[in-house]
Amino acid sequence: MRPVHIALAVLVTAVWGVNFVVIDVGLGHFPPLLFSALRFLVAALPAVFFVGRPKVAWKWIVAVGLVLGVAKFGLLFIGMSQGMPAGLSSLVLQVQAVFTAVVAMAVLGERPGGVRLLGMGVALAGIVVAAVDEGSGGPLLAFALTVGAAACWGVSNVLTRKAAPPDALNFMVWVSVVPVLPLLALSLLFEGPGRDAEALAGFDWSGAGALVYVAWISTVFGFGAWGMLLRRYPASSVAPFSLLVPVFGMSSAALLLGESVTPLRWCAAALLVGGVALTSLRSAAPRASGLPRGALAVERPGDTSASRTPSTPSRPAAAATDTY
Predict the structure, then answer these.
(1) How far apart (Å, rounded) are the C-alpha atoms in residues 188 and 287?
(2) What pTM does this model have?
(3) Using an 8 Å Cβ cutoff, are 92 and 130 in contact?
(4) Does the N-terminal or the C-terminal CB of the chain have fewer CB atoms within 10 Å?
(5) Least confident of 29-38, 206-215, 254-263
(6) CA distance 142 to 148
């Protein structure tokens, strides 16, 4: 990767890591389901008028919008509003790589090798250690909701792979349209119109800043830049940078929110990041005979022969479809 693109990848992961601190700030202004609905509303508008028509079937846009937008972010925002620390949330969500592999096994018939199975076990051990740490001083229900959000993220990753969107930004903007009305309906049902009206009436610059950050900077800029990198380079070159997200997440939460990082949490971080790194490994694809000189290999789970020329976009690998 060119140095400028390495810097861009690190910048995106920093944006996504700090995003958890910004979510924590936003939850001080809005109920979680309303905040999530507003996040997708601001991400979709006005961008939906500039990205062009959807480039994949509507069934994939709706499916990913419901699973990723409503389920994943709904559970995450509720979990954080119930006391799940921002830094720990950024770490626990990384177990999505394990859920992605498990769902891919069940739905796509993929069979992970021994190294990936080892990585899944190590990452799950990290979740257990994090649960023990959180159980000693925090609400386990909030922790469980965050793990549930990671599971939904894994499902959405597999759906995204099935959709194979050729334009990541176009796909994410249209996906952002789907959750708005369901999340608003759930907010009115469970959080109440009075609480929602009070939050909107108290709208201030701090709340507006949180919305702009999670919608335009984290979602539109982050996913657009990440998608551009995935079009230029193999997913196996880009995906490992996502392991920096919990580093930035835990560091920014400690610096800006004063969250403590216990020895058990450091242990959980080492296990989770190491396990996810092993789980995300792809075997190198051998060069097929007759490929044009300079052709790039596309590394997909269970695929040992696919290739592309530099002008053909590759399908994003499941481990590389991060959205925060």
Answers:
(1) 55
(2) 0.83
(3) yes
(4) N
(5) 254-263
(6) 10
